[in-house]
Design brief:
312 residues; Ribosomal Protein S5, domain 2; globular; binds (3R)-3-hydroxy-3-methyl-5-(phosphonooxy)pentanoic acid
Amino acid sequence: MTKVEVPGKIILFGEHAVVYGRPAIAVPVQQVRCSVEISDLDDAPHGHIYLEAPDIHLFAWLHEINEAHPLHKITQLTLDELHITSFPALKLTIGSTIPIAAGLGSGAAVSVGVARALSTHLGAPLPLERQSALAFEVDKIHHGTPSGVDNSVVTYGQPLYFIRDRFAERFTIGAPFTLVIADTGHPSSTASAVSGVRSRWEADRSSFEAIFDTIGQITDQAKTAIERGEVDKLGTLMDHNQRLLEGIGVSSPDLERLIHTARQRGANGAKLSGAGMGGNMIALASPERAADVAHSLEQAGASRTIITEVRS
Ligand code: PMV
């Protein structure tokens, strides 16, 4: 039996602008995870794969599932990459505590989990960069034009400074800091948020490019502050990033209510995280205030909160 676990993630700074070549910072969230378990099936024909994903009510043989289904796609991509055609029948069980369509990287974590577990079980574990690359291919189904930040951060399980098509660089967290993550309870489609931004960018390129430049500068300032352990600088940068995200039309009344609540309860800064239009927001809070901020966010309608410490 082979079992792997892959964390969720949040984007700290730079979402959307990252699609247009600006940097983003993303960190893993270990409190939510996708697990993939693989075992041999003695009573089924060679080369058959049975997929069990109770969270999405999927119980089927691989060949019965639509080829465009992300689970079919990642399984097939992994087998193709390994050039393995003969293997015993297998059962893959996929479970996840990462909420779907909420900006916490659930799709990418499942893909990385399958690629990692399957290649390991078949005796040829894929290098991390290949796991990430295969998950990126699958993310194209969810996202259309993904930047690659999601698959990178869940694969490496480390804080990353990321620039599309250039690099995903691990960096030092000078001093740990605490975030409260709160879910609006409204799933949102990354593909439609990203395509909405694209239409607005097409209608007014110069304004959007200027906003993306500013988001990129905020992200770079945040990276320096994080490396130096200057946590007190991050809240203002988060607030500024949030205003710019509102400007490109990806915030929502639910997100803004939670962001406002967090600030009122003493969070040092707050913003949406990921594609926006729903999904999750994040608030920077001192370790002493975090539980109170989380409680207030639940009272203000958050369907779930997570307190997480960001560290190297
Ligand atoms: O909702 P998420 O976490 O999958 O966010 C996607 C982040 C975007 O920058 C909006 C898109 C991308 O591909 O980077």
